[in-house]
Every structure is written in structure tokens, then in C-alpha cells.
Amino acid sequence: MDRGSGEIGVMRQLATLNRIARIAIQDLALRPMLQRIVDILHDEFGWEFVACASVDLRQGQFVCEALRSTVATEIVVGYHRALGSGIVGECAQTGRTIDVPDTSKHPNFVDTLHGSGSELCVPVIHDGEVLAVLNAESRSIGAFEGQRALLETVADQIAGAIRIANLLDNLQKTNVQLRDAYAKLEGLSRTDDLTGVANRRCFDIWLDKALADAALSGRSLALMMIDVDHFKSFNDGYGHLAGDGCLQQVATLLGYVLEGTQARLARYGGEEFVVILPDTDRDSAAAIAERLRLAIQAREFENSFAKSGFVTISIGVAACRPGASTDAECLIAPADAALYAAKRSGRNRVRVAPDQKLGLSGVAL
After folding, report:
1. Same domain for 218 and 338
2. Residue 28: what pLDDT?
3. Would 174 be classed as within a structural domain?
């Protein structure tokens, strides 16, 4: 009778180990894999508390990754404590199996079950590195007698799988960091270092897309060319640092006025800025340009080298209904011409180019 029961017990253990081995092969995500293994150990052997904690040597702590308990416990997934703390921490730190049949006699025992009688902790080791700890506890004394070899076999089975899961997790984190770094670099490559608005490269991309979108929709597209009046005199008189500050303040105020609209502001180069206005006709664009001009004028940035005594801007506006082959120059050139007309007529004003009605070839009709 005893021999038959023993054979059944051995077969049951072998079947359990086989199931755990399959899980270790199939699951690549760490926590789901460990949770399934912990569930099997709990269900097959009736242990009151089973958990698996990963070991974080950099942080000097162990972290609960999975648990199953039929008794009240302080432990939850994510629970962590310093290496060396408690029997689990001691096992993680030393890399040795610790079998405590009576916890009251162990000096490093930490009772998280509020009445634990026995505890068994087995390290999961791969290439000499402690990756995790399998932990079983019971409120009964001597509950894990004869179970040490079983849990050590489980630890050996899952060591490689945990190592692979950790490598995969680190690889995924690295990929996320690389994507974030690339996105940041891409953002920086499209941002003007001085003013923080989009740069010329970004403007070129935006304008090409805006032209293509407007050609498909048949809607008008407007462009503003903005120049800070008397900037060379300002820069020479106050110095380059003050000149940089002037451009920063102008860009900030332009961005503030345009905030919440479809308009896209960029620095075109030097003291020139550009604004793309999707779905905007010539008259609407001219009205927006006038608001920008008045906003700069009202701010009264000092410029003693200008007749007005303040920083002002001149703006050239052009609009068109792009055709399929319309290129950027068909909008930039008339806006630029309107800007210079504004400057020749006294600065601090808006000038609008004739409406650019372009055919499929991109030629003004």
C-alpha cells in the first residue's frame, strides 16, 4: 500500500515537472510564466503560500513577481525588500537553499503570513547568477519535509527561461529607449535651436505636405513671410546676445497669437519667420497677419535704432489654390515679393500678393 502510494506520488511529481517545463518553454513574458508555475505548485501540492521573487542586484532588492496564497499575507506582486532581509532575502543574497522547518528558531525570519510555521526558499541560478527565489510557506511546522529536491528541480528547469525572459524584457526596454531617443533626435533636427519653433527643414516638409493636401481638397493655402524690421541695426547696436533675445521674444509672441489655430510657424532664416495657413484665403490670411503685426507693435520691445523706438515686423502674404504639380516656390516667391513691398513702403505693415490661381502645371493663371 505504502509502495503504491509512493509510486503515485513520484508519478505526480514527474507530471508536474513536465507541465512546468512546457510552460517555461512556451511563455516568454516573465510574470505570466512565473504566475502559471506558482499556480501549478499551489494546486498540485496544496501549499498554503507559494511565490517567486526576482533578484535585482543593481537595486539590491528582491521583488515579488508572482504568488498564490490561501491565507492572509502582506505580500503582493511588486512587494520588495532588501537583499539579506528575511529568509527570501538571505536565499537571494547567498544563493543557497534555505529549508526552515520551524521559523521560530530562525533569527532572520520575517513573518508576512502572521503565523507562518515553516518556510522553504530555493534560489534560481543561471551561470552562477541568482535570478530569482522560489518561496513556499505554511502555518504548519515541518510542512515541506521531503519537498526540497522537488523545488530545486523546478528552479533548475526555469532558470534558463527566466534568463531568456529577462534578456527579452531588457531588449524591449532598450528598443523603447532607442525609439524615444530617435524621436527626440528627429524632433531636435526639425526645431530651431535659438527660438524653439520649427526650422527651415521642417518648414519645407510642412509646406510640401500642405500643398499636396490643398491640391487634393481644392482649398486655398496661404503663406506669410515675416521679417523683423531694422534687425541688423538692433543686432549691431545691442550686441548678438540681445539680438538672439529679440528673435526669441518675437517667436514666442507670434506662437502665442497663433496658438489654437491650424497655422504652422517656423524660422525661415536669420530674422525671417514663415507661417503656413491651411484652408485660408488671401483676405483671411491678411487679417491674421495684421493681428500678428499689431501684437508685436503693442508689446513695445525696445529698439532705439528704429525711428519708432520699438521692434516691429513687416509681413508679406500670398495665397493660392494649388494644382497637382504646384511647387513650394509658386507660393514662396509671391509672399517674399509682398514682404519686400512692405519693407520698401515703410516697414511695420502688411502687404498682400495678388491671389495665385495655379493650374496643374503650377503656373499662375
Report:
1. yes
2. 58
3. no
Active site residue 44: no
| pLDDT of amino acid 185 | 59
Looking at the structure, do residues 162 and 306 belong to the same domain, yes or no? no
pLDDT at 365: 29
pLDDT the model gives residue 359: 42
Q: Report the SS3 class of residue 178.
A: helix
The four Cα atoms 323, 329, 330, 334 give a dihedral, to 10 degrees, of 150
List of the chain residues with pLDDT < 70: 1-28, 181-188, 355-365
Q: Are residues 142 and 290 in the same domain?
A: no
The active-site residue out of 137, 271, 272, 329 is 271
183: in domain: no
Place of cell 534560481: 124
| pTM recorded for the entire structure | 0.54
Q: Are 132 and 124 in contact (CB under 8 A)?
A: yes
Domain end among 169, 185, 218: 169
Beta bridge partners of 316: 225, 351
